[in-house]
């Protein structure tokens, strides 16, 4: 059931809120929920007493699922789940991916994924995506597919799934998977789109990933079988060969259908049987290919466990070192004892990783390091060790890392270390039990698909928690030590060093360094006793709120304290075990000076970890043991924000940490130095691809080169000092108003008492002087010829951007929502234009941004990654679309394709407390947030072509658009003698 690692991933599912607010109920609620419909018949092939996924295991069956298996071999799993209400999630998994291709078929598995959406027996050319959009499914998030080395999965999250639309969608999806139209015309149409996707994924990251796969899986098919395929096999693809791959692998024996949603599970099973039960493919099923196993290379001494090694020189990329201990992958018996072993493995990993992090913080020669066990694509069982050297002295960094691991191999961990990690696991597992009833149906469906892919079962959250708690006596130092040693056993060890500079290492030097004797680390183990919040200094004299009054929506309460702090509280049990604490303070980017860009960047990386009161970074980790606490920090246009995802029993401690950071900040030097090192090491990577250049420069350029938004240069970073960091952030932490928002599952009176001891106990805030940023309407002027920046990456990669200024401020909230619809309509048109005219993939994106805390600064931005030859086509298409929308507006069908998905998205999002927090944050100071809330749904779902046309005329037609292209440096250099480039890369 492989829950040990997966269970540690925290996610935020959509959740059930009852009753729905009047402002959204009329427009967003489904007309008829599927669960209101009784099954028309009993499924013929359901197997409640013999669920196929649990055969051969003693893992308790999760009775929420109904499993079935049809005579043709199709297996299914269905489940009733009302999160979010009205939605049904469908997954069709085919047990074939890139590892099932022959040499002549490399890329065919992914190509068929595309062709499935192109045309099928019930859907004409390019009809699938628009059809599902009209039903409310958004491309990418609700309608999608993935191809991996071992599987292809088609996904549909169907909102407002009434019986008729659900049945029709199942019929259409069955036709897409079973009978796509694999004509030469469709192959010729989709191959350029797949090649464009391949091109867009290229660059340093793709080269590094490919090189790593080729090294670590050398001698196995996975080394040469990336899902994106090869350009030559795709370009040569013939319809008959593509059909042969489809017929060989798209068979009922290889199919698993998972359906989870707001419907009777028997009805869901009936639909699966109806549309997949008669699926027959002639001929016998093909044998599964042999994925091989890792083995020592012939050119390496068989007695030497360190086999292949590679030094990869990638200019501009930060240094990184990874070595792996490889073992053959074996099909396991997925039983309770096997999973007990996985849990001990996970504790062993966590102990080592905490030691490595502690060593990095205390002056190690590496920026970060971690170990991780993976069972990859049913090809190998690996333990990876990865780290980033702080300099070109990779040998010292490797020695540092190996010394920490050597100590873990030489002696057992302490029971205190084990208990600390167990406390962390217990919080996560218990929280998952609390949230079981509100787990999203889409996640449940994906869990089944993933379990099938790795040939294992699934377990209910209470099974996981009980298994973990019942075996706590087995987490002894001796047991964890034995599992630690097992993690590093293996006959094959391979290593790769990534460096930007030639000559730093050779493969033989890597091998010799891994074989060299290593001293066992003598640094202290991470087993300090947990710190009690009761021992921490008080913030000040507790003060009760001066007033408590209803905000006017649900039972949200507004509190005002004598020191000026305000708070919004909404306690609801719609998300058991989850609460969000958000603290808004100061004025964000408005109060950052022109020469403080480096400190702003470093603050987002190191402000939290620099500590508070008596707590440094290590102590913050210790005090969080056994608790659910968060400490995210971000800078917005008009405010700074701390945020923590927590739970009822930890809300008071979360509030203390945030208040203490503001009132008694600590200024440890090490986190700032580490953040500075990380920024310096990664800076050169901004040159490596169009997307990297955009990440570095686009925000700065859209703010008309305002120096505060510029990614700090190495020179600026080098000039930054811990003293300067403290001076800047001491000022910013003291200034401006504070709003504390607590939404979710918590005890309201306990939270108010905690607020009184923390934020209410603070002295009055300093009144900030005039904002550094007096106006926020800086935007570059329109340009007919795009600004050209350059990148040093692939010669066939470019990016293009066109942007228009809009506005800002909460007074314009209704208009800002309608601008989102304009952007969605623009996005659909631009995607169609670039895919069909220029052979681009799914990269064109159009979005609208409208800041609420400042009165300007909004924009509509259209962006695409494409080939250099397509840049002019992008600008031409964007200009044509902008002009047509401004002059004639959209069609009613175009509006339906964006408003129905938006309606369904709102219906899903509003069932969770975070949605309402995002709508109401700032409302204790800004009445517009509440005043314009009643029109939220109508603003986003009811718009006429005339309204869209007027918005387009005002914003798209009122400014000619600012343009920028990121081109390959070589291409620009070749034309430099004929036409000077405008601007240039930094």
Automatic annotation (TrEMBL):
Enzyme class: hydrolase
Gene Ontology MF terms: metal ion binding; metalloendopeptidase activity
Peptidase M16 C-terminal domain: residues covered: 239-423, 722-898
Entries under Gene3D superfamilies matching the protein: Metalloenzyme, LuxS/M16 peptidase-like
Enzyme Commission number, as recorded: 3.4.24.55
Assigned keywords, A-Z: Hydrolase, Metalloprotease, Protease, Zinc
Domain of life: Bacteria
Pfam families: Peptidase_M16, Peptidase_M16_C
Domain Peptidase M16 N-terminal: 87-200
Any one GO BP annotation for this protein: proteolysis
Similarity-based family: Belongs to the peptidase M16 family.
Protein's recorded name: Protease 3
Organism: Croceibacterium atlanticum
Gene this chain is encoded by: ptrA_2
